[in-house]
Amino acid sequence: MGRFAAILPEMILSTGGIILMMVAAFTGRRGSTLVSWLAVALLIGATVALIGAPSHAGPVFDGLVAADLFASFGKAIMFPAAAIAIIMAHGWFEQGTEHSSEYAVLILFSTVGMSVMVSATSLISLYVGLELQSLAAYVLASYRRTDERSAEAGLKYFVLGALASGILLYGISLLYGFTGTTNFNGIAAAFGRGAPSLGLLFGLVFVLAGLAFKASVVPFHMWTPDVYEGAPTPVTAFFASAPKVAAVLLATRVCLEAFAPATDAWRQIVIFAALASIFLGAVAAFGQTNIKRLLAYSSINNVGFALIGLAAAGPAGASAVLFYMAVYIVMTLGAFLCVLWMRDEQGRPVEAIESLAGLSQSRPALATAFAIFMFSLAGIPPLFGFWPKLMVFRAAVDSGYVALAVAGILGTVVGAYYYLRIIKIMYMDEPKAAYARVRQPIQGLLILLAALVVSPLGYLLIGPLGSITQRAAGALF
Fold it and tell me: Any idea which UniProt keywords this protein has (predicted)?
């Protein structure tokens, strides 16, 4: 039973997901609200179960997955994010025609996949988790069957995702062929036997390329703006938060465990990807007119900063990555919750950035929350979004990569422009047609909580969150 205790959260979500699928089959659209709230309860239960599950059992199931603090930390921020993505759908989809029970079930199964991803200590479990997460995500992207943009987003994501999976599988087969094992420790031992062979290096490059696609890192980011714009807004919020964290943490574990002896080989790739993501994410967002496309480039930009922490390697770098992703998930969900409230008089969603003009006069509370998230995403002090950026830069400097930190700081300055532009439109432009009132008290409460976390009050979390991330990062070393 000890082995099964280590995967208690996954068992809760898997079993609950299968039961809810049966409930959905029998209740149809009538049961969408019930299924959604039961799914949220399951995700909260799985988060609580992390306390009871052993976080020090190490590799279980013959080294396929690890029950360690690193995985537990990832799950503790992904499960609540998935629950919020389910809550967001209430009132956004048309209740009688679009909001069916499958939405919550798909998010549950996607979350199980992400949970396996952050725990994987073998190339086999890595691929199974990744595909389980991705297959549910492809369906979610094209969830609005009657909407051309949503169907196009799902198709683009599926075709490019299949290509990335092929690249990843090719890398896995090369690593297995040249090491004779799929286990991370075995691969690390093979890399540690002197200079790695050309085959091993090719395997490393292909695996990192496959993972870069999932984290939407430049140059494998091409799908992100189109899919984020076309997918339903609650789905976009989900894509930008939990799966992004799962991909970054998986890449961190692969680099620092499986490829640890070949740090010099993968560090060059990670540094290039980090700087390319920071600058492309900053520059490409300049001319955007759609708020969801802008937030897509913002997510590419932010993953670039997290990768600076990974490039630093070491426990301090890994800890900085974990801290960064924890704060990033709150900022992103907060920003998307605000986007959900952009509605015209008929209650239809509005996505044009220009429609925010004069929001500070018509809806001052919403404008304030939006401004807090934008300033925080830009990393402007005294908001809490500044601290994780400082942590990754400090980790890079401590590892001797001062030029990388300086380049990252320059990227922050470039990227600040488009965040500040949104604030300028809300506070200085002539007011446009006012948004309709949205009566969603739970979403309003979530916006308030997220705004408080990323406000200067968030600095109170530095002590506890810092010590947790240090201990979680220590599990990899």
Answer: Cell membrane, Membrane, NAD, Quinone, Translocase, Transmembrane, Transmembrane helix, Transport, Ubiquinone
234 contacts 85 by C-beta, under 8 angstroms = yes
Between CA 343 and CA 406 the distance in angstroms is 41
Which residue carries 């085959």 as its tokens? 199
Distance CA 56, CA 64 (A): 15
Cα separation, 97 vs 31, in Å, equals: 13
DSSP-assigned letters across all residues of 64-86? TEEEEHHHHHHHHHHHHHHHHHH
Using the structure block, give the residue that is written with the tokens 């073998």: 122
Q: What is the pLDDT of residue 429?
A: 81
Please state, as a whole number, how many other Cβ atoms lie within 10 Å of the Cβ of residue 181.
16
* Residue that is written with structure tokens 């924890």 in the block: 326
Closest CA to 3 of 54, 42, 47, 68: 54
Measure the CA–CA gap between 62 and 315, rounded to whole angstroms.
Answer: 26
The answer to whether residue 195 scores a pLDDT higher than 90 is no
How much is the pTM? 0.93
Amino acid in position 65 = V
State the distance between the two ends of the chain, measured CA to CA, in whole angstroms: 27
Separation between Cα atoms, residue 422 and residue 351, nearest integer Å: 13
Task: Return the bridge partners of 183, or none.
Answer: 122
Tell me, what DSSP letter sits at residue 475? T
Percent of the chain with pLDDT over 90: 47
Residues composing the chain: 477
